[in-house]
């Protein structure tokens, strides 16, 4: 857990201790724990989580978190709280983990689900749900059985989202007002559906055919997993499209290689601070990554020209937002990103291009990308100059807020960097890549000064007696 932040290193063991206290009654002698049912359900959940994929349909797509929650809710309906909590532990400890720290994430997931299932089972028992499931020679108490099942699913959702928000506060340092924003509304509906599926499994389990008949419920689960696999494949195709376009830009304009990805990350950093939902975060990332895709329409000789640009060449450069919009206008999944690609060089005071929009006329995503673009341009080391320190870049953005940049976006970037930082590795530019020269001579310390009515542009350092010739990045905005 050394890679986990301090607050999380305390919070995760505390939750794990709480989970241990919940399962201890089932481990005591004479507790009467139905170990056969526990083992069957735990083994079934383990079998579903262990591969971390959908082997039934031959897919290599990771299973979506929560795909097999009906199994855990069935355990909550069939077993006492302590025994039900045990069912979640083996599958959670060996299930798929996408990012490090792997041990801490597995321990957290096991403890979180154990507490959640314990709470759901307790609420189900409180509403007398066990007696409604039927048994040998007894019919299930429908429709009343739906009430305790839904109450248990509600408790399941409340505890799960409460713990999800708490770990975001501890590990990601999200503000309290934002940590739980939207978590419960997004999860409550699916969890209620999971509760009804778990109720079906529990009723079948108690029926004359026993555990074997409950496997029928796995079929719709695997169908759900297959549907998600199709979505995942479509999403992977989207990412491949984005990656191909970005690689094409990087090949054509080698001076700013890696710039697009960093602008995408900075755009997401800003959007998170603005409280955008997960679906919009993905689109704003696409906007940041593809903001310069229009350079594919600019002649290479103009992009790589070492001398100063003629007015005609600058006009060609300033067409790249429109070229970019034309390139992506038929890509439906980009949504708002298309407007950001077209308008990311507009300025708040109306002196930008291509259409001279001002203030709130500029789309929100374009205002986000404009700040992210300028920030990365200032902090990235290029072959002709070194990057500026992050504090100096932020001061420059603040100075130009209200004229060139939206102050709200600048403040969001400042908050995001205070919380998450911006590593030197992240901001490394083409000068650090093999085959690119190191900065030297008068170009090493290009300064940022007002352009027209207070914007940012590259100029030679003040001590240079003669203006240095423009470099390719001097005209990228």
Give a structural overview:
- Helices cover 58% and strands 1% of the residues.
- It is an all-alpha fold and 477 residues long.
- Helix 16 packs across helix 17.
Notable features of this structure?
58% helix, disordered C terminus, 477 residues, 2 strands, mainly alpha, two-stranded antiparallel sheet
Strand fraction equals under 5%
Rg (CA only): 28 Å
Order of helices and strands: HHHHHHHHHHHHHHHHHHHHEE
Global shape: elongated
The assembly state of the depicted protein chains is single chain
The total of beta strands comes to 2
Major sheet characteristics: 2 strands, antiparallel
Tally of alpha and pi helices: 20
**Main sheet: which strands, in order across?**
1-2
State the share of residues found in helices, binned by percent.
Answer: 55-70%
Fold topology:
Blueprint: H1 6-27, H2 35-49, H3 69-78, H4 81-94, H5 102-126, H6 146-172, H7 176-179, H8 183-206, H9 211-214, H10 218-252, H11 259-273, H12 278-289, H13 300-303, H14 311-317, H15 320-328, H16 337-343, H17 364-379, H18 390-400, H19 407-420, H20 424-427, E1 447-449, E2 457-459
Antiparallel strand pairs: 1-2
Helix pairs in contact: 1-4, 1-5, 2-3, 2-4, 3-4, 3-5, 3-8, 4-5, 5-6, 6-8, 11-12, 11-17, 11-19, 12-16, 15-16, 16-17, 17-18
